[in-house]
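About this split. The held-out portion is used to measure sequence recovery: a designer receives only the structure tokens and must propose an amino acid at every position. Recovery is the fraction of positions where the proposal matches the reference. Here is one held-out target exactly as it appears in the evaluation file.
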């Protein structure tokens, strides 16, 4: 029977419509897949861009730019002593003491006088007109907002400045400046002798200030306060000590925590230890540059009052501080900076960081930072010499004073001076330490704390945790995948594989909680047994075939035999583990002399901590095993079955087939499995955070904790102030972790492709 033409026409139209629909579906699928891939790439690049954008300001170059004042050079003369200058917290005004004993409040940056007063003790009446106390020398402590001046008679006056601010809504106005004066002590001087230089270390109270005074005859006096009175009538009484022995031709002075430092024209620094109720005692005289000495021309303490920045007549700049040795504290030159053009005339410290300015007699200004160990900026700003400077607390406004007494306004831009490649990745000699070290310690309860931003302990901790996790995960994951893919019955494999992959779904926070609170204490108690059980585990694996042969009853079905084998192996290994636990104390007595803590401490110098790398490695390995197992098992499953059948047909044993056919054919997938597991362990956070001491230490001992980059981000990033140095260093560490993960995955893919090509070309 012939098919009507209409039927054929309808079938043709339907076929054409089907082809059209399939073509449209293919086109939509291609667009969707390409769009999805591009979106993934864009997302990865977006994350990298955000991390890079937040980290890049750490490495921006600083700048010192002049501020347009609009006044003539004659109007820029300062009416006050440059060494008594102080700037308020907001960098809007300055104050200082004039040679005639008056104090002046000056506007920034025009240096216009806003207020003037006379140093007046609080006991003087307002309507009285005390004589103006002219001064011969003065100094101001920028941290304590206090200073001292010396009168021609040798009398030392202390003063303290207080800015009175008023706040109305979001507006801030200055109501005025109040200066408290205290005629403190009389320095015994000869008739033709005068105080020519002062240095001040402010105490908690005005009368607790320490002052060192140098006279025109080269005599050095130290004025300190001593506690007097009882509990309810406590007071501080000044004591004047003449420093002996006297250093030759003193050129610089500085008072730090418990020490008086004197620089000499011979290039030495004399160190005096301050005693309670006794004159200072000279401890040592240190020559800064023994091979080429030069006069010490400038010296000042840095933030924390522990380290000193020192400059000499040849433009050399260094930082030195006391270092603890076996014979006691020794004053040591710790780091050097870029030499400057000309002799160092003055060194001015910053108030909120360990940065400082150096001024030379040839007009060169340089900006350094002690912790970073770098000269961040240097330039010759004027043909004349500089004499002094003052820096605002936020390091924004800077006033430079030349030798003629004129003030020059500048603005310093360097928000992250403590960061350098050396500070991030090199050994840094921090204050109070006996040698350069890698240390991460980003914050403290004190404003004078020296931040330590070395990323090396975090990188080391990340690699250490990954190493111990892979030691546990790689053998189990790969051997399990090889056994399941080559020797296990397909029915049993189909039942066990989902259970193993289900391990990857267990939250890491649960594993960290269990490892930190349950496993760690028991691991410390059972450690000798666990150490022996590793050998017993290997022995149990080797003797498992013997147990199977001796087992009296064996089912006929292959799948049931495989299930029974797994049960017997599990029971056999459990029995060995329980046996080791039962003899835990005996094992410790035989191998470790009854105390394994002391044994490891004496033999290897390893102190056992309860939350250590072994506990973390076990818990992290538990999360990595499913990943390595799944990828490796899939790679083994893709080996053509006819290759395996052909090898067996030619007389090869299953083990020979595994070694010669399966492993080479799936080697690219096995390498990828290990590398992906490595990347998974690198980024683990919660287990490390909860199961280790989370201490950033460089200790290879398996019994000591560590801190990884990811755990450090989880702990410190929520508390970091947005935009500050700590915040951006954390983003930099995140960028390093991100880049490291990308590199690992890329290397894994390249190795997989290379192995695959090499194998298939044979």
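Reference sequence for scoring:
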């Amino acid at each position: 029977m012939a098919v009507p033409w209409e039927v054929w026409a309808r079938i043709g139209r339907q076929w054409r419509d089907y082809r059209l629909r399939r073509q449209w579906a293919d086109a939509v699928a291609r667009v969707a897949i390409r769009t999805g891939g591009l979106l993934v790439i864009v997302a990865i690049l977006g994350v990298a861009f955000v991390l890079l954008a937040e980290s890049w300001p750490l490495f921006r170059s600083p700048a010192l730019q002049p501020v347009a004042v609009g006044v003539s050079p004659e109007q820029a003369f300062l009416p006050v002593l440059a060494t008594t200058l102080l700037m308020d917290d907001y960098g809007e005004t300055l104050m200082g003491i004039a040679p005639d004993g008056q104090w002046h409040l000056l506007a920034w940056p025009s240096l216009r006088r806003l207020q003037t007063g006379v140093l007046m003790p609080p006991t003087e009446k307002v309507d009285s007109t005390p004589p103006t106390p002219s001064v011969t020398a003065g100094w101001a402590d920028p941290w304590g907002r206090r200073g001292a001046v010396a009168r021609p008679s040798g009398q030392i006056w202390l003063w303290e400045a207080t800015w009175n601010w008023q706040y109305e809504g979001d507006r801030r106005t200055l109501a005025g400046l109040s200066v408290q004066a205290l005629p403190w002590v009389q320095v015994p001087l000869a008739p033709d002798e005068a105080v020519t230089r002062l240095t001040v270390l402010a105490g908690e109270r005005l009368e607790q200030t320490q002052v060192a005074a140098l006279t025109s005859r080269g005599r050095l006096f130290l004025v300190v306060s001593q506690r007097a009175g009882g509990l309810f009538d406590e007071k501080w009484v000044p004591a004047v000590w003449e420093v002996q022995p006297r250093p030759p031709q003193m050129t610089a002075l500085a008072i730090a925590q418990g020490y008086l430092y004197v620089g000499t024209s011979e290039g030495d620094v004399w160190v005096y230890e301050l005693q309670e109720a006794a004159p200072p005692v000279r401890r040592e005289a240190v020559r800064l540059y023994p091979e080429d000495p030069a006069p010490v021309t400038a010296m000042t303490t840095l933030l924390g009052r522990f380290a000193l920045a020192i400059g000499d007549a040849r433009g050399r700049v260094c930082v030195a501080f006391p270092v603890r040795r076996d014979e006691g504290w020794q004053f040591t030159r710790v780091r050097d900076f870029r030499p400057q053009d000309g002799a160092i005339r003055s060194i001015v410290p910053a108030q909120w960081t360990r940065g400082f300015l150096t001024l030379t007699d040839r007009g060169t200004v340089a900006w350094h930072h002690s912790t970073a160990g770098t000269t961040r900026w240097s330039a010759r700003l004027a043909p004349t010499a500089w004499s002094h400077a003052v820096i605002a607390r936020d390091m924004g406004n800077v006033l430079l004073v030349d030798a003629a007494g004129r003030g020059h306004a500048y603005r310093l831009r360097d928000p992250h001076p403590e960061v350098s490649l050396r500070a991030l990745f090199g050994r840094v000699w921090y204050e109070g330490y006996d040698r350069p070290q890698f240390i991460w310690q980003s914050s403290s309860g004190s404003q004078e704390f020296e931040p330590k931003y070395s990323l090396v302990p975090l990188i080391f901790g990340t690699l250490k945790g990954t190493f111990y996790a892979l030691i546990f995960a790689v053998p189990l994951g790969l051997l399990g995948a090889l056994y399941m893919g080559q020797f296990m019955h397909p029915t049993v494999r189909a039942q066990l594989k989902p259970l193993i992959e289900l391990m990857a779904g267990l939250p890491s926070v649960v594993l960290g909680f269990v490892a930190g609170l349950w496993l760690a204490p028991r691991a410390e108690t059972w450690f000798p047994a666990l150490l022996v059980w590793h050998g017993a585990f290997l022995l149990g694996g080797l003797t498992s075939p013997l147990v199977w042969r001796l087992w009296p009853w064996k089912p006929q079905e292959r799948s049931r035999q495989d299930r029974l084998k797994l049960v017997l192996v599990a029971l056999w290994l459990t029995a060995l583990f329980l046996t080791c636990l039962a003899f835990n104390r005996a094992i410790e007595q035989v191998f470790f002399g009854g105390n394994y803590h002391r044994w490891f401490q004496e033999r290897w110098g390893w102190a056992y901590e309860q939350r250590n790398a072994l506990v973390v490695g076990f818990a992290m390995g538990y999360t990595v095993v499913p990943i390595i197992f799944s990828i490796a098992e899939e790679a083994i499953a893709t080996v053509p079955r006819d290759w395996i059948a052909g090898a067996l047909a030619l007389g090869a044993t299953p083990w020979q087939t595994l070694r010669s056919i399966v492993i080479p054919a799936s080697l690219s997938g096995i390498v990828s499995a290990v590398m992906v597991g490595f990347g998974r362990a690198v980024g683990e956070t919660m287990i490390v955070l909860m199961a280790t001491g989370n201490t950033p230490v460089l200790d290879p001992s398996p019994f000591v904790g560590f801190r990884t980059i990811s755990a450090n981000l989880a702990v410190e990033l929520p508390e970091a102030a947005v935009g500050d140095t700590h915040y951006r260093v954390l983003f930099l560490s995140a960028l390093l972790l991100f880049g490291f993960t990308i590199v690992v995955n890329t290397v894994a893919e390249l190795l997989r492709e290379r192995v695959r090509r090499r194998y298939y070309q044979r």
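Annotator remark: Residues 5-59 form one domain.
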